[in-house]
Amino acid sequence: MATGRPLRVGIFVFDDAEELDVVGPYEVLAWWAAHSPLRPEVVTFSPDGNGVRCSKGLRLVPDLGGDDVGPLHVLVYPGGKGTRTLLRDPEHLDWVRAMRASTPLMTSVCTGALVYAAAGLLAGRPATTHWGSFDELATLEPTVLADTDARFVDDGDVITSAGVSAGIDMALHLVARLESVDAARTVRRGIQYDPAPPV
Questions:
Q1: How far apart are CA 45 and CA 66, in angstroms?
Q2: Is 54 a catalytic residue?
Q3: Which residues form the DJ-1/PfpI domain (predicted)?
Q4: Which residue from 126, 161, 163 is spatially nearest to 146, judged by alpha carbons?
């Protein structure tokens, strides 16, 4: 991904996005950006630059609007209830396709994969999504190779992750891929992410 430009990661935010789908990857990537010698830039952006209200009520003010975000190396597309509106919006799907054409690495969290499927990005490709959304994923893209077990699926220029907290795992994988495994381990320790489920 050596393009001569500083590494830029954009996290797309929208009304009714799932909170942890946004802030989980943001925590990982922002911690990495603050400590990495690569000095990646991590920005949030909404379609129009205005604030958004996430699915459980958290309000976010993004850094930029879609028209101002500029070129990205990585797009992070979260899931949430709002994806059901966006996947039926032809103009938005055209935007996703345009981003696919100009962005080397497209990633999704949870039901963000449904929007990618509706835009045609997952045809014939392995992918994952929230455990409760695989039927919908197959309806949107019958040729998708659904992986119902993986926390995330890296298929080169497209990475999809399973539901909600899996976005943290996917973001750590991004750090490992874009810098190194050691860098990802440093981030993991820095944010004290070491899941040990109580039940």
A1: 6
A2: no
A3: 8-176
A4: 126
Round to whole Å and give the CA distance between 41 and 137. Answer: 31
Query: DSSP per residue over 126-174, as a string?
Result: EE---GGGHHHHHHH-TT-EE-SS-SEEE-SSEEEE-STTHHHHHHHHH
Question: What are the per-10-residue average pLDDT scores of the chain (199 residues)?
Answer: 77 98 98 97 98 98 97 98 98 98 98 98 98 98 98 98 97 97 97 84
CATH hierarchy code of domain 8-189: 3.40.50.880
The residue from 93, 110, 171, 183 that is catalytic is 110
Residues in the chain, overall count: 199
Cα–Cα distances in Å, from 127 out to 2, 178, 199?
26, 20, 28
190: tokens are: 């820095």
